[in-house]
Automatic annotation (TrEMBL), chain A:
InterPro entries assigned to the protein according to its UniProt record, in alphabetical order: ARHD_Rieske_2Fe_2S (IPR015881), RHO_NdoB-like_C (IPR043266), Rieske_2Fe-2S (IPR017941), Rieske_2Fe-2S_sf (IPR036922), Ring_hydroxy_dOase_asu_C_dom (IPR015879), Rng_hydr_dOase-A (IPR001663)
Similarity remark: Belongs to the bacterial ring-hydroxylating dioxygenase alpha subunit family.
Keyword Oxidoreductase attributed: yes
Record protein name field: Phenylpropionate dioxygenase-like ring-hydroxylating dioxygenase large terminal subunit
Taxonomic lineage from the root: Bacteria, Pseudomonadati, Pseudomonadota, Alphaproteobacteria, Sphingomonadales
Sorted UniProt keywords: 2Fe-2S, Aromatic hydrocarbons catabolism, Dioxygenase, Iron, Iron-sulfur, Metal-binding, NAD, Oxidoreductase
GO molecular function: 2 iron, 2 sulfur cluster binding; dioxygenase activity; iron ion binding
SUPFAM superfamilies the UniProt entry points to: Bet v1-like (SSF55961), ISP domain (SSF50022)
UniProt-listed PANTHER family: 3-PHENYLPROPIONATE_CINNAMIC ACID DIOXYGENASE SUBUNIT ALPHA, CHOLINE MONOOXYGENASE, CHLOROPLASTIC
Residue ranges occupied by any Rieske domain in the UniProt entry: 44-155
Claim: NAD is one of the keywords in the record: yes
Gene3D superfamilies assigned to the protein according to its UniProt record, in alphabetical order: Naphthalene 1,2-dioxygenase Alpha Subunit, Chain A, domain 1, Rieske [2Fe-2S] iron-sulphur domain
Transmembrane segment boundaries: none
TrEMBL record, chain B:
Gene3D superfamilies: 3.10.450.50
Annotated GO MF terms: dioxygenase activity
Classification via Pfam families: Ring_hydroxyl_B
Similarity-based family: Belongs to the bacterial ring-hydroxylating dioxygenase beta subunit family.
This protein's name: 3-phenylpropionate/cinnamic acid dioxygenase small subunit
Length: 435, 176
């Protein structure tokens, strides 16, 4: 592994000066192993939302990349995350996806752990272990860092990692547009989970950068949603008449965001049926304006973004998802619908309908995205020659710069500023550099 | 054979024939004809399964008001069918080959005379180009309503309870 890793020549995998990525990064098992070691063991990873585990003993099971973890609410109100693994023979401690339990008993020999990971006891502690087993040393592995941003729970395996707020940096301004628009905050509905045969980076990168695909990939979905008699949607489709929009990239941290700004018409109510548009366009909008300001209320309804490495959000479709790596060639999509906690039940129901119809695993838009990324993956990974191909990430290269309203490195909406930021930070981490 | 048994057999047979015919339309991608066999008030939904312990087993499907792989009514089904007919619907052009096996059909009377609860098991597979996707298995719980159609019924409700906590096979592009 060590020699193979040196052979990787990480500097050649992405040429940031010229915007070129090597096709092999999506399928090379050695790249994947290095990502697990140097990205997913050092970055802040999304675990869930506080509202999913409100009471003492509430837990959810999720993964940090491929590692299964149990996220629990403790008696003092804090949240812990532990590796879902018994220290005796490595068995899973919890098989349920969620529930309430203050302890977990391994089903093999019965070692019992509290939900913070402490080893409480085991059968035959006296006659088998002669009371010599130091339980304090044999607790479940703790995720050393757990921090919360406006209800979103993140974990980090690196005890020395910078604070979550530093890792988010300027992307928090964009992220908060999803989280902070209503008193009481959000709740997450789901998770919906499905598998796609592709590398995790395809969609993580894509959500931080790509509005370019929409008019082509989603042409049939956009046309199907047009009123009867309307002409088919153009391949040159733009959301706004003046073809504006922005894209944010943050190469030091890997984040990206984009949108047809200003999308004054319907961004925030794009997919939800009645009564959601009336609610979202009425009092909820005024509250949002008071909390988030005019720009994030009126102009950023189509915001789509990626928080490095694998958390993505879509504001018009109101989803939050995690691209969980399942080996180099498979991704588990963990998809939540974002609701404001205070919304009336019928509005929540309408939003769930709208998002299911558009972007859940069977959604009109998701269908074409899933198929395209699976085919990208095949194209870039099947064939010796195909894996060596330099792929083009050059859109808008050299045209980025500062903007008075939007933080970060800003470019036109049709650019790959976010993708270059993603791969720059990805490469820095693979080389063992900046956190 | 007494009349009651005879009636029950005829009902079972005619409902099975309906299921095979409407499923055949989905397999043959005759989606508009399938849509014509659904009532205007159709509910078509696929709840999300989670893995739960026995104590919480009745909570294994998330509430349909909050989550669903499908949450459809007549209007959204119509839009889906319209998209499937569009040559620019890339995920289905060239078309995948859907195959749906329906079995274990049980018929239950309901409080409404001409409506029947029909429970069945299914396996759905999709093949495209040289690739077969992982099969999806589950249980359909349908409400069939007697009607003047070629097959004697219309579909008024389809609840699809899948077996998988995580959907295999890159999502679903057609209908089950």
């Amino acid at each position: 592994m060590a020699n193979r890793t040196q052979d990787l020549n990480i500097i050649d995998l992405f040429d940031r000066e010229n915007g070129i990525v090597k096709a092999s990064i999506y399928s090379d098992p050695d790249v994947y192993k290095l990502e697990m070691e140097r990205i997913f063991s050092r970055s802040w990873l999304f675990l869930g939302h506080e509202g999913q585990i409100p009471k003492f003993g509430d837990f959810l099971v999720t993964t940090m990349a491929e590692d299964s973890v149990i996220v629990s609410r403790q008696g003092d109100g804090t949240i812990t995350a532990i590796l879902n693994q018994c220290r005796h023979r490595g068995n899973r401690l919890c098989l349920a996806d969620m529930g309430n339990s203050k302890s977990f008993r391994c089903t093999y020999h019965g070692w019992v752990y509290n939900s913070a990971g402490g080893l409480v006891g085991m059968p035959h502690e006296t006659d088998g272990y002669h009371n010599k087993l130091n339980k304090a040393e044999w607790g479940a592995i703790r995720v050393p860092r757990v921090e919360i941003h406006k209800g979103l729970i993140f974990g980090n395996w690196d005890a020395e990692a910078p604070a979550l707020s530093a890792a988010l940096g300027d992307v928090a301004w964009y992220l908060d547009a999803f989280l902070d628009g209503a008193e009481g905050g959000i709740e997450l509905s789901g998770p919906h989970r499905h598998h796609v045969k592709c590398n995790w980076k395809w969609q993580a990168e894509q959500h931080g950068t790509d509005f370019y695909h929409a008019a082509i990939s989603h042409n049939s979905a956009l046309t199907a949603l047009n009123p009867p008699g309307a002409p088919p949607t153009s391949f040159e489709y733009t959301q706004t008449p003046d073809e504006t929009g922005y894209q944010f990239g943050m190469p030091e941290l890997g984040h990206g965001a984009a949108g047809w700004f200003p999308a004054r018409n319907d961004g925030l109510v794009r997919f939800a049926p009645a009564p959601a548009p009336a609610y979202l366009g009425g009092p909820a909008r005024e509250e949002m304006r008071a909390r988030l300001g005019d720009i994030r209320t009126d102009e950023m309804g189509s915001l789509v973004m990626t928080v490095f490495p694998n958390l993505s959000l879509n504001r018009a479709a109101r989803y939050l998802r995690v691209w969980q790596p399942r080996g180099p060639n498979r991704t588990e999509v963990v998809h939540y619908i974002i609701l404001d906690k205070k919304m009336p039940e019928e509005v929540k129901d309408a939003i769930v309908r709208g998002t299911s119809f558009s972007f859940n695993a069977s959604g009109l838009f998701e269908q074409d995205d899933s198929e395209n990324v699976a085919l990208c993956h095949r194209g870039a990974s099947e064939g010796h020659i195909s894996r060596q191909t330099p792929l083009n990430v050059q859109m808008g290269l050299g045209f980025g710069g500062p903007h008075p309203d939007f933080p970060g490195q800003i470019n036109h909406v049709y650019a790959e500023e976010g993708a270059r930021a993603f791969y720059s930070h990805w490469q820095d981490l693979l080389m063992g550099g900046a956190k | 054979m007494d009349t009651r048994t005879n009636d029950a057999l005829r009902l079972q047979w005619s409902i099975e024939q309906f299921l095979y015919e409407e499923t055949g339309l989905l397999e043959e991608r005759r989606f508009a004809e399938w849509l014509a066999l659904t009532t205007d008030d159709i509910v078509y939904a696929m709840p999300v399964r989670t893995t739960r312990t026995l104590r919480d087993f009745d909570k294994r499907f998330l509430p349909i008001e909050r989550a669903g792989h499908f949450r459809e009514d007549k209007q959204t089904l119509s839009i889906r069918v319209k998209k499937l007919a569009d040559p620019k619907s890339w995920s289905e052009n060239p078309p995948s080959v859907p195959r749906i096996f329906v079995t274990n059909v049980r018929v239950r009377e309901t409080e409404i005379d001409d409506e029947f609860l029909v429970i069945s098991s299914f396996m759905f597979t999709r093949t495209r180009m040289e690739q077969s996707y992982a099969p999806i298995t589950g249980r359909r719980e349908d409400i069939l309503r007697r009607a003047e159609t070629p097959y004697g019924f219309m579909l008024a409700r389809r609840m699809i309870y899948i077996d998988h906590a995580a959907l295999p096979g890159s999502g679903i592009n057609t209908l089950i």
